[in-house]
Write a structure and sequence with these properties.
With 367 residues, the chain is of the alpha/beta class. It has a single domain, classed as TIM Barrel (Alpha-Beta Barrel), CATH 3.20.20. Helix content is 45%, strand content 13%. It has helices at residues 3-16, 23-30, 35-53, 92-105, 118-121, 129-142, 155-163, 178-184, 190-202, 219-232, 259-271, 281-284, 289-294, 327-336, 344-358; strands at residues 56-66, 109-114, 146-149, 168-170, 206-213, 236-241, 278-280, 299-303, 340-341. Strands 1, 2, 3, 4, 5, 6, 7, 8 and 9 form a nine-stranded parallel beta sheet that branches. Helix 10 (219-232) links the parallel strand 5 and strand 6 (236-241). Helix 4 packs parallel to helix 6 (129-142) and helix 10 packs parallel to helix 11 (259-271). It is globular and about 55 Å long. The termini are far apart. Residues 360-367 have low confidence and may be disordered. Bound molecules: S-adenosylmethionine (SAM), 5-amino-D-isoleucine and iron/sulfur cluster.
Length: 367
Amino acid sequence: MSQAFHDLTGIVNRLEKNHPVKKEEIEYLLGLSDPREMDLLFRAARRARSGYFGPKIFLYGFLYFSTYCRNDCAFCQYRKSNQALPRYRKTESEIINAAKEMAGAGVHLVDLTMGEDPGVYSPGESGFGPLVRMIQSLENEIRLPLMISPGVLPDTVLEELARERITWYACYQETHNFSLYKTLRPGQEFEKRLAAKQKAKDLGMLIEEGILTGVGESLEDLADSIVWMKEFGVDQARVMTFVPQANTPMAHTVAQDHVKECIIIAVMRLVMPEILIPASLDVDGLSGLQARLDAGANVVTSIVPPQKGLAGVAHHSLDIEDSRRTVDQLLPVLKTCGLEPALPEEYRAWTAARMDRTGPSFQQKGA
Ligand code: SAM
Ligand code: MD0
Ligand code: SF4
């Protein structure tokens, strides 16, 4: 047995016993490349998931309701400078219909995502009024927990959404390396993005943090992000492999395969075994689901209904119109992995218990 193998089993054993490990040890796990060592890591991640969640997987519907954006993120096809891209802004009734369809199909949550739409952001705080009212109507119609992924919201709007008892605020830093962040999200303040998450957490909302891989980050950057997520106490932690986009500054970046993303998922699972970790259908579609579940993910995200003219983020249309991002299509994959969808009440109970732990003054609507 190699010295490295000794290190690996030792670190993994300590993580499985919830004993502290050093940042350098996290970095070491993130750098694994030997297939046998990766297999050991993935097995441990599955054990850790099973200890907290058994075979249960949560399912998230994704509704990208406005693809207009005032920002110029280097990695994103929806950046404002990309004039080659047709945009859409869905009406309230289109949003409600798509959400109802997904609720009927069995998703546990609907994720409402938009670009930093100038129609919402430019008028100042009054611009957010219609958004808040749309969310109120949606809550009355579907009675599922909601996530909002709208960019960096003003404090007053976060306060209003917390009063509306929106369960989740998702706002991804992409990296916790300040200078890399500046190249990825030019013109957007690093500290302001962090502060919005802190504000939402203080208001009792659950927080999803996210990072990108394949954007020039180092293993140390990845380890720093994982340590940051653990210290902040995020409730859901995501990693997505960067998908190069035409007409963007990163169009010619060499695409990375899915293996590093799976390693990061597994390490996040071992470092934060009790939280939610997505396997996104947005990166590699349905064919990429099993590998991410086998790495320890416990949420399938980016379920999108066909025939509604809705887009993904990393891929504008992958698997959507041929109905491969639906609950029906992913159930056989769960079964192959020895997993099954949770009941809606199990998901609601998890979020309610998590909120009780993190935000005592906050109760979910309809709970
Ligand atoms: N506009 C809001 C914002 O930026 O916070 C909401 C959209 S956000 C949920 C979109 C996320 O998708 C980004 O934060 C990034 O993590 C991911 N993403 C965007 N473009 C991507 C790409 N080309 N490849 C992989 N992930 C991407
Ligand atoms: C996903 N495309 O789940 C979505 C998106 C936003 N909260 C989530 C990145 O993969
Ligand atoms: Fe806009 Fe979000 Fe894309 Fe950045 S990641 S360009 S803020 S939609």
